[in-house]
């Protein structure tokens, strides 16, 4: 038994020793001895076709880089520290390499061990493959400046776009389709640019203008681009990409009540034709450019709320990483068309993006937090001035009510000392004493009108000496240092604000604990003090977060502090904001009661108006603070930080880097400037591709969010670069690009089918005709409401409800009947993340869970069922029938003709007219209207 044990345990060892001695006798040759082992056992999983765990063993430079989670795979001179040896010798069958087939023999392991220990010599020029240059990719190279090519059919092109398209068609022996008729073109371009079909009047006017010449087309396009409806239409394309929604997502999916200002910003920017480079900068650093709501872009994605995150430090660090990851992904895929987020755990598998690149990009936004922020706009400033006037009047009312309080509250215990703290200023005097330390401890604070107990706030705290001319020795400029129990940091609230000599809420300190907190002042030298002055807001604008119970202590050392003022919770009352609900008129005479009731009623009205004004000033647009220190994380794990990284752009396409101590806003501005630089090879290409896709249903690059090596190459690369250069030359005008495209012959083609062309290009990527495609969900709903005469064109503001609730844990029951605001354009619907609209969600309407760079069209039975039988369709068809009857009169033939003019922008053909008459007689005009809403002619671009 003992003998068999020793044979089992030591047999392989002695075999290795013997083999090793033999190996040492003949020097290891990599090509002869090592490379065959890699070929036999390794390269099927770690070669040209696959690089599992990031390891590649057919190319020298890659083999020594490392293995995900292990570090360097080969440590020259130290086989025992090389992961490759550990993997091939593992006793765990599940983790031993190779995972399939026979394991390495003892002799093969001995060869690898000796080779590594002797220096892992791998000669140059013997690799089994040539490493592909990841930088050698069309999208990373500078844009070219191509000229429009010569074409055989010189009478067809109307501009450079057509020459590029026709040249490509002629290479494949294809010809363009005939031109679309004038009404089809007008209907197409109207829906394309505004999301709404033309009215019968607009059709008639255009037909008449087109008879007089080509100028009619440009006039129509300019009219559409100047319409407010244009911004609503094209903002929707952008919101799809950036994942805009009005709820937070995840399991709780609670409402973001102030997300809508970003949506309105995008609509306004589109309508104003904000130059695209400016549009980029505003969304990344709009707080520095007078476009506060624009930074809602940074925080459009889902986010875990504080209550959904574990309170332990690792959970909080992971949640923070996830939040930053969403911002990096949003910036990179939206503006650069790059999947930078794939490098969070390891170097990108396809593109030249390292993990360090990813974390360097993260450093640009390391000071961004998801949250509401007050807007600074002319409108918000006007609201603030109005609210200030209301607050002053409320303060006057409180002062008058305070005079009535003692007789109104005879139940107060007269033996107890009552004390009133004041939000504007409180003076605490005491017997003079020598002190170097002063501590202000808050035990309780008043309630915010709607939020309940919240963190107390202190404006400037002043400590005055007992001198003929008292000095404020609390000032930081005097050398006084301040510590605190904790601080809730923001641009307005910082610990250093408490003794900087400046007054007001914007220069104050806020505790990080609800209702409590303390601050300690350490003077540079002992001083004889006799008075402390403190306030919540010396300017008198804010009365919430006011300390109502507190202790003031002073002494020559921390151990010798003595109380100079103490206001316990049970004795504190607040005169700064009289509580309407608790105010009693007991003890007042009739005149005083009438006066008190009138004042209370006025105060209630003013406070409601103040709240309304405050709501109008807030947007979910991110808050900004001191940036986190960013480290490269091993395998993306926040618990495995490696070296610290400074803000820097992608090394493959830029060289911009900032110092690690760069300020928060400086970081975002630098990032925005780099993205918007005309020399950036990606930015203009990505955007003109999105514009092209909006007009033809698919871009020149059909992976609009991925211009990297895993995406597809452009069908017309020279056209793409020409468009990008023209975009920049135009001053980054999006509307200019629209004009070029929709006035081209390429766009004016009919969608006439050609079987011979389809055999060559079934997907119409070469544009031998106008591609047939269905209207998007929003355009279908909006067009139905427009045709019925019900469309409410009110713009902006909080969204209307598609569901009977705006967010939360339980399910969302859809609203099935709409009126007033619910008849607005669908872009103004309150967007609930992960919930699709009951009717139009079936038409591939995204749920904002992920970026939808391109909507893929599906065809399902539920689409037809929803559009035929939903209450929305039935009510809208009834409204259309009512409109048609009112405009056409009682004669059925006239009603049919008017319905066709309104819905299809044409008169019915003879057969259509006669087939519809018996339907209307038997089932009513509403039935015809429902059928028309379900027709391909209504649902598809002409």
UniProtKB/TrEMBL annotation:
The keyword Metal-binding applies. Gene3D superfamilies: Cytochrome c-like domain (1.10.760.10), Galactose-binding domain-like (2.60.120.260). It holds the Pfam family PSCyt2. It comes from the Bacteria. GO terms for molecular function: electron transfer activity; heme binding; metal ion binding. Transmembrane segments: none annotated. SUPFAM superfamilies: Cytochrome c (SSF46626). Keywords: Coiled coil, Heme, Iron, Metal-binding. Residues 29-120 form the Cytochrome c domain. Residues 589-616 form a coiled coil. This is Planctomycete cytochrome C. It comes from Stieleria maiorica. The lineage of its organism: Bacteria, Pseudomonadati, Planctomycetota, Planctomycetia, Pirellulales.
């Amino acid at each position: 038994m003992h003998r068999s044990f020793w044979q089992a345990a030591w047999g392989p060892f002695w075999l290795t020793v013997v083999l090793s001695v033999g190996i040492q006798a003949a020097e290891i040759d990599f090509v002869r001895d090592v490379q065959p082992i890699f070929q036999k056992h390794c390269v099927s999983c770690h070669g040209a076709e696959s690089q599992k765990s990031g390891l590649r063993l057919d190319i020298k430079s890659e083999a020594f880089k490392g293995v995900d989670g292990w570090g360097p795979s080969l440590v020259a001179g130290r086989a025992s520290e090389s992961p490759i040896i550990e993997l091939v010798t593992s006793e765990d069958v599940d983790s031993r390499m190779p995972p399939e087939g026979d394991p390495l023999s003892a002799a093969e392991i001995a060869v690898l061990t000796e080779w590594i220990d002797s220096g892992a010599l791998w000669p140059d020029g013997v690799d089994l493959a040539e490493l592909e240059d990841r930088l050698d990719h069309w999208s990373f190279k500078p844009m070219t400046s191509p000229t429009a090519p010569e074409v055989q059919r010189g009478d067809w092109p109307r501009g450079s776009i057509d020459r590029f398209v026709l040249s490509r068609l002629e290479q494949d022996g294809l010809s363009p389709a005939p031109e679309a008729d004038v009404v089809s073109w007008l209907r197409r371009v109207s829906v394309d640019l505004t999301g709404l079909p033309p009215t019968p009047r607009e059709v008639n006017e255009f037909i008449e203008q087109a008879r007089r010449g080509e100028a009619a087309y440009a006039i129509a396009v300019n009219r559409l681009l100047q319409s407010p409806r244009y911004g609503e239409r094209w903002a929707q394309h952008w919101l799809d990409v950036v994942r805009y929604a009005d709820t937070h997502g995840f399991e709780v999916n609670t409402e973001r009540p102030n997300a809508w200002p970003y949506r309105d910003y995008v609509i306004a920017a589109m309508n104003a034709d904000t130059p695209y480079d400016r549009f980029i900068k505003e969304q990344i650093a709009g707080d520095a450019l007078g476009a506060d709501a624009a930074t809602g872009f940074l925080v459009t994605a889902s986010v875990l709320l504080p209550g959904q995150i574990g309170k332990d430090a690792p959970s909080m660090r992971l949640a923070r990483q996830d939040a930053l990851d969403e911002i990096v992904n949003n910036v990179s895929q939206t503006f650069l068309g790059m999947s930078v987020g794939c490098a969070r755990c390891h170097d990108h598998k396809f593109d030249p993006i390292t993990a360090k690149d990813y974390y360097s990009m993260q450093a640009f936004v390391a000071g961004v937090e998801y949250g509401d922020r007050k807007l600074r706009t002319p409108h918000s400033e006007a609201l603030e001035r109005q609210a200030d006037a209301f607050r002053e009047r409320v303060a006057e009312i409180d002062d008058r009510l305070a005079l009535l309080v003692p007789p109104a509250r005879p139940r107060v215990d007269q033996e107890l000392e009552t004390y009133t703290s004041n939000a504007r200023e409180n003076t605490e005097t005491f017997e003079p004493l020598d002190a170097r330390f002063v501590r202000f401890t808050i035990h309780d604070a008043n309630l915010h009108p709607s939020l309940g107990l919240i963190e107390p706030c202190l404006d400037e705290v002043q400590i005055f000496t007992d001198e003929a001319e008292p000095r404020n020795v609390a000032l930081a400029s005097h050398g006084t240092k301040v510590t605190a129990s904790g601080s809730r940091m923001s641009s307005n609230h910082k610990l250093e604000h408490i003794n900087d000599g400046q007054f007001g809420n914007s220069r104050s300190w806020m505790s990080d604990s609800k209702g409590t907190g303390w601050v300690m002042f350490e003077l540079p030298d002992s001083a004889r003090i006799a008075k402390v002055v403190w306030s919540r807001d010396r300017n008198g604008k804010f009365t919430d977060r006011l300390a109502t119970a507190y202790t003031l202590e002073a002494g020559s050392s921390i151990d010798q502090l003595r109380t100079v003022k103490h206001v316990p919770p049970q004795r504190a009352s607040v005169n700064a904001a009289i509580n309407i609900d608790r105010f009693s008129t007991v003890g007042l005479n009739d005149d005083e009661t009438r006066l008190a009731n009138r004042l209370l009623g006025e105060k209630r009205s003013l406070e409601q108006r103040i709240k309304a004004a405050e709501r109008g000033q807030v947007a979910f647009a991110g808050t900004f603070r001191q940036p986190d220190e960013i480290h490269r994380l091993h395998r993306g794990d926040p618990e495995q930080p490696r070296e610290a990284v400074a803000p820097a752009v992608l090394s493959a396409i830029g060289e911009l880097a900032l110092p690690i101590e760069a300020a928060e806003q400086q970081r975002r501005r630098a990032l925005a400037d780099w993205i918007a630089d005309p020399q950036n090879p990606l930015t203009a290409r990505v955007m003109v591709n999105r514009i092209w896709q909006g007009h033809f249903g698919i871009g020149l690059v059909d992976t609009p969010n991925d211009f990297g090596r895993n995406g597809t190459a452009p069908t017309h690369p020279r056209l793409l670069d020409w468009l990008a250069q023209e975009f920049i030359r135009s001053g980054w005008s999006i509307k200019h690009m629209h004009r070029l495209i929709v006035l081209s012959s390429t766009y004016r083609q009919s969608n006439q089918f050609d079987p011979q062309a389809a055999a060559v290009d079934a997907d119409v990527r070469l544009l031998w005709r106008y591609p047939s495609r269905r209207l998007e969900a929003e355009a279908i709903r909006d067009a139905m409401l427009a045709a019925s005469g019900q469309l409410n064109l009110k713009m902006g503001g909080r969204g209307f409800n598609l569901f009977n609730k705006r967010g939360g844990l339980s399910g969302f029951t859809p609203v099935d009947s709409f009126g007033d605001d619910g008849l607005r354009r669908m872009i103004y619907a309150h967007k609930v993340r992960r919930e699709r609209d009951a009717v139009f969600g079936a038409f591939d309407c995204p749920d904002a869970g992920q970026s939808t760079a391109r909507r893929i069209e599906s065809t399902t039975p539920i689409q037809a069922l929803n559009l035929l039988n939903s209450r929305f369709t039935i009510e809208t068809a009834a409204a259309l029938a009512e409109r048609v009857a009112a405009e056409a009169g009682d004669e059925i033939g006239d009603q049919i003709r008017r319905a066709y003019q309104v819905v299809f922008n044409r008169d019915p053909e003879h057969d259509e007219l006669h087939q519809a008459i018996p339907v209307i007689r038997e089932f009513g005009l509403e039935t015809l209207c429902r059928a028309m809403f379900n027709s391909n002619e209504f649902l598809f671009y002409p």
